[in-house]
Amino acid sequence: MGVYNVHERLLAAKADEVGALIDTLAGGEDDRLWPGRHWSPMEFDRPLGPGAAGGHGPVRYTVAGHVPGQWIRFEFTGPSGFHGFHELAVLPAGPDRTRLHHTLAMSPRGWARITWPLVFRPMHDACMEDAFDRAELACTGSVSRPARWSSYVRFLHALASRALRRGAEPLPHGAAVAPVADRR
């Protein structure tokens, strides 16, 4: 079973403006793409570039390649069974129009064959759409059709939030998930 998951958003902005968003990824205050308010923060052990190791929550990866303002690829290092990559690309689509494109390609093994479709995929899909909302807002000043979480994603998010409140550590490196009441 292979996984090929694509998200993209056509933005009314120049490619260099959209590309600048990719270069802010790192979960800090200057990050204009990662939806950190509602998701585990994205953190790296050094500035964004090849070899930087980090991730968000239980999803860990290493930067495998980076062309500033155009493309970045992350190779999975965790959770166990995630073998593959995910990447963001900036694709010019005409004058003042750019497609922000995200691809996740992997071959899940072991428990990942179950956890990917039941837990990680719905959460990943919601997180990516939230990130693309942030990109649209940063580039245009508004979001024409804001993403909405499904009831299942709200349920999964609530479970993760409850586990954190009880003192469990399902998300490594002190990551946090915003309480579901803060979201849509």
Automatic annotation (TrEMBL):
SUPFAM superfamilies: Bet v1-like. It comes from the Bacteria. This is SRPBCC family protein.
